[in-house]
Design a protein that fits this description.
Elements lengths: L8 E2 L13 H13 L4 E13 L3 E10 L7 E7 L1 E7 L6 H21 L15 H23 L1
Antiparallel strand pairs: 1-2, 2-3, 3-4, 4-5
Helix pairs in contact: 2-3
C-alpha cells in the first residue's frame, strides 16, 4: 500500500533554519539519519513531512528499500524534542495513528521503568532506562496529548 503523499512536503523542500536544532528542517535531517541507521534499510528513497510542529516534533513518511521483502518498505518516523521511533504504515495509516502509537509505546516503556521491569523487548528509546529519563519523557508525552493530539483531532 503506497501512501498518498500529495498533501505532504518533500523533506528536500523544507526551509533551512540556521542554528535552530528544533526546526522542522533539523527534525527531517534527524529522521533521515535515523532511517539510515537501521541495518535492515538498504536504501532510502523519498522522505516527506506529513505533520510538523516547530520546536516540538515532526511526523515523516519514508519510502525505503529493505534488505528483505518481508520487511516494511514504507514507514513513519517521529523525531523532535523526544526520542525518535519508526512505525510501519500498514499498522498506522495516518499521522494521528502513528502519534497515538508512539505515545502508547513510550508510555509502556515509562511504566516498565517505574516498575523496574526490563525494557529489552519494548520500543527502543535512545536514553538510559532510568526513572529520571522516564519522568522527562512522561512530561513530554503529557504535553503532546494536551497540545498536539487534541489539535490534530480537530
Amino acid at each position: 500500500m503506497k501512501l498518498d503523499t500529495s498533501a505532504m512536503k518533500n523533506i528536500i523542500n523544507l526551509e533551512t533554519v540556521k542554528d535552530d536544532k528544533y526546526s522542522l528542517y533539523e527534525f527531517a535531517q534527524e529522521a533521515k539519519r535515523f532511517v539510515h541507521s537501521h541495518r535492515w534499510v538498504e536504501r532510502v528513497f523519498d522522505g516527506f513531512l506529513a505533520k510538523g510542529f516547530d520546536g516540538i516534533l515532526g511526523i515523516f513518511y519514508f519510502e525505503v528499500l529493505p534488505k528483505s521483502k518481508k520487511l516494511d518498505s514504507e514507514i513513519w518516523v517521529i523525531t523532535g524534542d523526544l526520542p525518535p521511533a519508526y512505525f510501519p504504515t500498514d499498522e498506522c495509516p495516518t499521522p494521528i495513528n502513528v502519534l497515538d502509537s508512539y505515545i502508547c509505546e513510550m508510555r509502556i516503556w515509562i511504566n516498565a521503568i517505574k516498575r523496574g521491569d526490563p525494557v529489552d523487548e519494548l520500543i527502543p528509546v535512545n536514553v538510559p532506562a532510568e526513572p529520571k529519563y522516564a519522568q522527562i519523557l512522561k512530561e513530554r508525552l503529557d504535553f503532546l496529548e494536551k497540545n498536539v493530539v487534541k489539535g490534530m483531532r480537530g
